[in-house]
TrEMBL record:
Belongs to the UPF0045 family. It comes from the Bacteria. Residues 4-97 form the Thiamine-binding protein domain. Residues 82-102 are annotated as: Disordered. InterPro entries: MTH1187/YkoF-like, Thiamine_BP, UPF0045_domain. SUPFAM superfamilies: MTH1187/YkoF-like. This is MTH1187 family thiamine-binding protein. Pfam families: Thiamine_BP. PANTHER family: UPF0045 PROTEIN ECM15. It comes from Cohnella fermenti. GO terms for cellular component: cytosol.
Length: 102
């Protein structure tokens, strides 16, 4: 299982507000046919699932601001793809919490 962090920035919108675009991205995530889990954060979205599925989802998410009228979109993607053991968003958080208790 892979974890992807994606930040999508609409440009050329005439406004500094992006919450409308974030809401549209969330709707797209909610409708995804792929088996994914996601977490919105104040600065990006974290998605976990199979890598091929994640890449397909990110491709669709990149298109969301264009459909909403953005003239340009800048998308940044970070992929954490660990193959030696199964990982998840929760597993990563639990690992840190465990270290804090030591």
């Amino acid at each position: 299982m892979a974890i992807v962090q994606v930040t999508i920035v609409p440009l050329g919108t005439g406004s500094t507000s992006v919450s409308e675009y974030v809401a549209a991205v969330k709707k797209e995530l909610d409708q995804a046919a792929e088996e994914i889990r996601y977490q919105l954060t104040p600065m990006s979205t974290i998605i976990e699932g199979e890598l091929d599925d994640l890449l397909a989802v990110v491709r669709r998410l990149h298109e969301v601001p264009f459909r909403a009228g953005a003239l340009r979109v800048s998308t940044t993607v970070t992929i954490d793809d660990r193959r030696d053991k199964k990982g998840s968003m929760q597993q990563k958080l639990d690992s840190v919490e465990e270290k804090l208790r030591e």
